[in-house]
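Researcher: Here's a chain I'd like modeled. Treat it as a single chain, no partners, no ligands.
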Amino acid sequence: MENPVLIFGAGALGMQALDIFRRNNVLVYGILDDNKELHGKEFGDVSVLGATDDEGFINIIGEKCETFVAVGERSVRKQLTEGLNERFKSMPVNAIHESAIISEMAAVGHGNLFAARAIVGPTSKLGSHSLFLTGSVIETAVQIGDYVTVGAGAIINDRVKVADGVFIGSGAIIVAGVEIGKNARIGAGSVIVENVPANATFFGNPAKKI
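Model: Modeled as a single isolated chain. Structure tokens:
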């Protein structure tokens, strides 16, 4: 990546993104966050410059500066991403940890975060603006939509289909061939052995609707 990156979000996810870019020798121009108490704070040699709508900084986005939206809350991440795309025609870049393993046979969209030791198997198709946290495993021929969160240590087995906006908690296991509907939520540590309808919340082992 030739251009520097401007990170949106100075929380835990922002620190993960900052660490990833630094490990990959990508220059981080700065961080924007709406929490005024963080403005001016430095993380190493990178500062929180201002709010996410600060015209003085967001106007550098484009040919000379890339972006990454590091916000855990899906609705906020989506709002920021869509705003960047509409205003600057800028699609956030991927943040891929040096220890993540992504098959060359997998297809990956834009603006995703792959944390340490995340794995993506061959022929899997991943959308955009999703979070694949530490040690998460995406097996072979999995399909994942946009704005999905896969928690630390979660395992998504082969041929699983995950729709847009799904949240999968840490340590959850999704058995092969299961389909998870749009905006569904899977509790941490749950084992999913059946299809999950859209907007449903499943928890337990085996997981049941709650």
